[in-house]
Amino acid sequence: MILTLPTFQNKVDYWPGLIATYRPYLPVTDATPIVTLHEGNTPLIPVPTIAAQIGRQVEVFVKYDGLNPTGSFKDRGMTLAVSKAKESGSKAVICASTGNTSAAAAAYARRAGLHAFVIIPDGYVAMGKLAQALLYGAEVIAIQGNFDEALEIVRQVSEAYPVTLVNSVNPYRLEGQKTAAFEIVDTLGDAPDWLCIPVGNAGNITAYWRGFCQYHQHKRCQRRPQMMGFQAAGASPIVSGQIVECPETVATAIRIGNPANWEGAIAAQQDSGGKFTAVTDAEILAAYRMLAADEGIFCEPASAASVAGVLKIKEDVPTQATVVCVLTGNGLKDPEIALQQKTKRFYQGVAPDLDLVAQIMGLSH
Ligand code: AN7
Hints:
Layout: H1 18-21, E1 44-46, H2 48-54, E2 59-64, H3 74-87, E3 92-96, H4 100-112, E4 115-121, H5 127-136, E5 139-143, H6 147-160, E6 164-165, H7 171-177, H8 179-188, E7 194-198, H9 203-217, E8 226-232, H10 237-240, H11 262-272, E9 275-279, H12 281-295, H13 301-312, E10 322-327, H14 335-340, H15 354-360
Parallel strand pairs: 2-10, 3-4, 3-6, 4-5, 7-8, 7-10, 8-9
Antiparallel strand pairs: 1-2
Bound molecules: ligand AN7.
């Protein structure tokens, strides 16, 4: 029998990255050097056990943006911010970060041949994110202060020196990030009823809303979702309406007390008829474990805030609604938190003995 193996000499259709895919909606020209790691095109995954907890024929999906090249949604913003920085002749970028922005900034800047400087709160960045920033080749400055203080410093540096700021106060960041809303509509055929999203510096909720509005204007969707934002209870300035001086949460990615895009987040919530809600660390971690053990989806704690949130206010979900929860980052970013979750299923120091192993497996006679 002769097997015909596929050859790859012909052009294979592949995903060219966000900017190439959504070019008409983005501020790029022929003069823009496109810096891409082929980010985007992340899966929208049904999560039936979570939907079953809500009931009433509600459909729930997660937008698993942890599958981007550096493991978080920040790649969407960074492909555009770094492309525009390079276009403008910039030689270096800087950001403050709870971790994911620093990883993405470092990767895209180095790919573009630019220097990357990142300022992080010392001791409050998950191990995977720090490892990434260092290995990508960023200069990492860990300050004795929180994210809000780091952001203040990088704003000052970028005003005083020729270094491009790539936090979400850079307008290109949100332009790139809005493409996640496009992808959701392209997959579902319309916008969902609810878009549930973790909120830290509030850039992403602002970007998603812009994406849905733009697609709606261009008649790519019939409706726009209600924007449901979720903050960690110990870092919930938008819920309380007050700056939090000393934010604290296990979800270090959203350990932010004075969000830079506060106004954008409020506008998204008000214009969409949405809501902001705080979720406790216990609720976040319960959703985090549930996503992994019941759905096979490993996200980082901050991301699980979107699922913790929809479960917390499940009575408010309209019957037969379509709900999308954004999972902003990959679980591998923060292995320490994963290992701290006491599961009863870890048997250490076991002798290499058949009977003993079978007994632990519950198979002994
Ligand atoms: C996994 O990396 O702010 O509300 O410096 O990493 O747009 O800030 C990260 C934020 C949610 C919140 N989920 O998004 C940073 C940083 C994850 C995150 C957020 C972040 P925004």
